[in-house]
Amino acid sequence: MVQNRRVNFSTLRRNYTHPHEYYAQLRAHDSLYFDPSIRCWLATGYKAVTSILNDPRFCSKLDANTMPGMSYVHRQMLFMNGETHRKAQEVLLRQLSRMVKQMSDTIRAIVEDILTTVLAKGEMDVVRDFAAPISLFAIVHILGIPTDDQDLLWQLERWSDTFGDITSGYFSGEKQDVQRLEAYFRHLIAEKRLAPADDLLCAFLQAGDIFSTEEDLVANCMMVFAAGRTTTKKLLANGFPFLIEHWDELQAQYKENPRAVVKSLGEELLRMVTPTRCLIRQAEEDVDLADLFPGDHVIRKDERVLLFLDAANYDPAYFAEPDQFQALRRPNKQVAFGYGEHQCPGATLARVEIQITLELLLSTLQAKPLQKAGTVPRWNPNPNLGGYQSYFITFATD
């Protein structure tokens, strides 16, 4: 018990590239633990995470003093609650559900084009050459961003990465990047007002009662652009070590039942990679959770809880042999997209991207064994997001 108390938020932050040993220690001590060093609760158990995410007494809230001068961050639907959040989420879900049905061919063309390019080279950085362009071009299509200037698109990605860092609480990069991204979306909004189209940005424009100011529109376009890229980018990039290790087994399984394997494999990668590391919730009143978790678990009004989704996805009470990759794992109620009212509205789109990409990898590279290159992988320095920044692989060429 005493040893486990040494594991706190600082420990998890320092060891973000390989946190599961520390999650296990903390979970064994208390799956809902109050960390006095940061005056915040840490939820590392599946039951603790899902219970709090599904409890209306907790809200998604951002301290207005956290990011002075960046009010657009607070306007994101990520930090809305109640009826306001429900209405905003409905707009997003309605448009996405319509567009996702038409996206399969677009995503397939994107992935095929990328595979053709990297196969000719015989190697690739799975982040820069593969995961990043797939996630970028898919979300560009959803938002209705013009694709004629690809240099600009990559510039938008860099600016958006800075925005994502700031939103996640990692203050790195140039604040001017975020201002440039904001200016771009203001310009694009003005163009869309003059020439409406069937895309998500125009759906936001039509929902004037919800996104009533240009600041609301800009904030949520920036949020969708960042979140829509980050999830798929991290999942695909960080999933490659598992694909490499189990490539022959996956190929055999794919030949037997391609559709089922691709779907199940995608869910297992989501569980093991978990692109969104943690969420934060704040108690709106005193909440006594002693009936769910033995001991003193009274969360006081305004106290915060860090909910580690990646820890919940490795909880042995809910996943047999959680450290073992099982492509055909059943059941697999992973919480990579969150849980409850704030569950990620882009989950369906992300799954389509992931499954099509896995299908094309397995079918296109049947006779091309994947290998990790000798280059040492580099990690994203943002401990709140994590993920590879660079990871090189090679495969046999014809």
TrEMBL record:
**Pfam families, per database record:** p450
Domain of life of the organism in this record? Bacteria
* One Gene Ontology MF term: heme binding
- The signal peptide stretch is none
Keyword list (alphabetical) reads:
Heme, Iron, Metal-binding, Monooxygenase, Oxidoreductase
Q: Iron: present as a keyword of the record?
A: yes
Q: Does the keyword Heme apply?
A: yes
Q: Which family does it belong to?
A: Belongs to the cytochrome P450 family.
Q: What is this protein called?
A: Cytochrome P450
